[in-house]
Write a structure and sequence with these properties.
single chain; mainly beta; globular
């Protein structure tokens, strides 16, 4: 089991963009995980809300700032939209705009 931490940064066009936490200069539109792994999203700009567009691969529903396990029955690609809410309450991304988000790809166990 691995822990995956996706960092969401707001770009110059005020879109929330997912980055790899191990290399925060690399945009990671598709993040690959395995069942049983844990995931969370955070942002240096504020609080993050993550909503999967169809169904969630995570136990307990949508993602956010707390680690959640990838469901044992999840497989395939799951698109998500996200919102960053800064310390002043200003929202960036979905649902205010269509921008912001990425995908989680759940790979089979080895």
């Amino acid at each position: 089991m691995s822990e995956h931490h996706i960092i969401i940064k707001v770009d110059g066009q005020q879109r929330p963009i997912p980055f790899n936490s191990k290399n925060p200069n690399v945009v990671e539109e598709v993040h690959k995980v395995r069942t049983g792994d844990k995931m969370k999203w955070t942002s240096p700009e504020g609080r993050v809300e993550v909503v999967f567009t169809s169904r969630s691969p995570l136990d307990g529903g949508n993602g956010g700032e707390q680690f959640r396990a990838v469901r044992s029955d999840a497989s395939g690609v799951f698109r998500y939209k996200c919102t960053v809410i800064d310390r002043n309450g200003k929202r960036f991304g979905w649902p205010d705009t269509d921008s912001g988000g990425g995908s989680v790809e759940v790979l089979p166990l080895r």
